[in-house]
Amino acid sequence: MPDSNAAAVRMAPRTGRQLREGDVAWVGSEPRLRAARCLDCDTRVFPAATVCPSCNGERMAELPLSDTGTLYAFSTVHIAPAMWQTPYTIGYVDLPEGVRVFGKIEPVAGLAPDARVRVCLEQADDDAQAPGWRYWFAAA
Ligand SMILES: [Zn+2]
């Protein structure tokens, strides 16, 4: 019979979404989220794709994203898998390049749509076989 106290040991959900190494672009020495722009129809996609989801074109250019954006919408999650700590906040952020990115948001008092947020990126070393990055948003 499972230990009924096991659910009492809860984890924070991962800090941000896991990205592959290639999902990050470099602007000088600064890592940035990497999107792609279709050279045929100008559709912008994050994470970057090699085929345009709008026109199926294969002429895609790298599009490094800005490190600040505008909060479009957010929600605080209070009910989650038993092993995750709640609450946590998620939402969509509009970046100046015309891309809306979903991610975790550091909760702050007074968080509201149209708030300025910054993109936080860090290397994720919890999978030595496939190192990558994780990102989240925080108040700017
Ligand atoms: Zn296209």
Structure description:
This protein has 140 residues and is mostly beta strands. The chain is built from no helices and ten strands. A hairpin with a 5-residue loop joins strand 3 and strand 4. The strands form two sheets. It has a six-stranded antiparallel β-sheet, with no helix packed on it. Strands 2, 3, 4 and 5 form a four-stranded antiparallel β-sheet that branches. The protein has one domain. The radius of gyration is 17 Å and the shape is globular. Bound molecules: zinc ion. Zinc ion binds next to loops.
Number of helices: 0
Strand content: over 45%
Task: Extract low-pLDDT stretches.
Answer: 1-8
Overall pLDDT, averaged?
86
Strands side by side in the biggest sheet: 1-10-9-6-7-8
Number of strands: 10
Following the backbone from N to C, one meets helices and strands in this order, namely EEEEEEEEEE
Bound ligands, named by name, code or SMILES: zinc ion
How many structural domains can be distinguished in the coordinates? 1
Characterize the biggest β-sheet. Answer: 6 strands, antiparallel
Choose one word for the global shape. Answer: globular
